[in-house]
Design goal:
Pfam family, one: PEX11
Largest sheet: none
Oligomer: single chain
Distance between the termini: 22 Å
Main location: membrane
Helix content: over 70%
Subcellular location: Peroxisome membrane
Protein name: Peroxisomal membrane protein 11B isoform X3
Keywords: Membrane, Peroxisome, Peroxisome biogenesis, Transmembrane, Transmembrane helix
Amino acid sequence: MGKLRAAQYACSLLGHALQKHGASPELQKQIRQLEGHLSLGRKLLRLGNSADALESAKRAVHLSDVVLRFCITVSHLNRALYFACDNVLWAGKSGLAPRVDQEKWAQRSFRYYLFSLIMNLSRDAYEIRLLMEQESSACSRRLKGSGGGVPGGIETGGAGSPGTPGGSLPQVALKLQLQVLLLARVLRGHPPLLLDVVRNACDLFIPLDKLGLWRCGPGIVGFCGLVSSILSILTLICPWLRLKP
């Protein structure tokens, strides 16, 4: 499935490149047809995915963390609805249900896909916040134990204290710099979370473009879809890179 998806978005990216560089219309048509066949093949292979997504939602209901329970459950429910719409689209494109309004069902499908991705990114943001708080507390305990100051020898007091005129902006810049460094440290120490953030962020461009909320163009959509597909294949090859639960 991941290979088909990667091939489909590679065709999308290739088609955009060929059009940009003035390739022959016949070649462009063949690439578009290949992309369409790959899309239809993926829809055929996803016929049972709605049931799998519902089962995943049922398992997520039992998570102890309320925020994770909500984000993961709602994400799986939206994925189930997305796959259901996708099945209707497949029936229409394959000729089993020729009267299906494909544009309407495609819009529904991408809306559910967008909601699912928003929930995934919300879950990622929540996990990042928890890990940053844990890392910050651990750093504070280490600094108190060693009698040190701010990491890297940066002093936040003195002339730049909040009570000093003109000292507010440097303080904000310093805090922002420390937060960025802390975020980088957390993501570097948790590769599954980093991959999940990148993959969901890349996937987000697809429904945004298809729904007309943010027109990215076929080049960006193809590139982001290809990157996301490669990361998905990577998590299949290396299961420890898959974010759990």
